[in-house]
Write a structure and sequence with these properties.
Layout lengths: L5 H7 L7 H13 L3 H14 L1 H14 L12 H18 L8 H22 L10 H8 L19 H12 L3 H8 L3 H19 L3 H7 L2
Helix pairs in contact: 1-5, 2-3, 4-5, 4-6, 5-6, 8-10
Length: about 220
Amino acid sequence: MQHTSMYSELLKCNNTPYNTKKVNAFIILIKKTSSEQAKRQAKFQLYFLLSKIFLKAINNFSSLIRNVPEYKVLHTKEDIAMECYLIMDTCLDKLRMEDLKKFYFYLNSALNRGVYRIYERQYKRYFNVIDTGTEEKEHLLLNKGYLQEIDFTEIDLSSLTEEEISVLLFKKSGERLSTFLKKEKMPSAVYYSTFESAREKLFQIYQNEPYFKEYLSA
């Protein structure tokens, strides 16, 4: 019997829209059920329901190792798909029910950190990887798309400037950067610094919460 590829299944589900109610329902089932079989099935259903976030993480990893010679690449996309599942599993274990609405933010942050750890430990340290991009671009790469599904009504944005909120809303919209810069008459250097500032403020909002602190110290 042929083993089903997790990565190929993620690709099949790539057009599945993010559904907060379904995601929350699966998480509640996973946290509350005493049936290991029901929990395992719900985790796989949740994994494929969140296919877009995992495919972004896999693509980010591919971008990070773009300068590694092919014969030195140790991880297939299937390997990273499995790592993503394990990261989700850890997030679910640590998640408190009162933090349910923040699960997407936590998961995306964990994926970004996990993918970069693999790159740093298995490639950057040993294979003399030459990064032709800037540190600024690396920050954007690691956080690419993490705002796509965040519901801003659940986040206190009072500490952000209007410009920072505008940039975050742009990132959430998926609009082309060139279009946004032209419309806002914003220099690219201002955009990058504003995005980084907004990103840091978001992390400041969540960093003192128990779940996030546990992850950052892992």
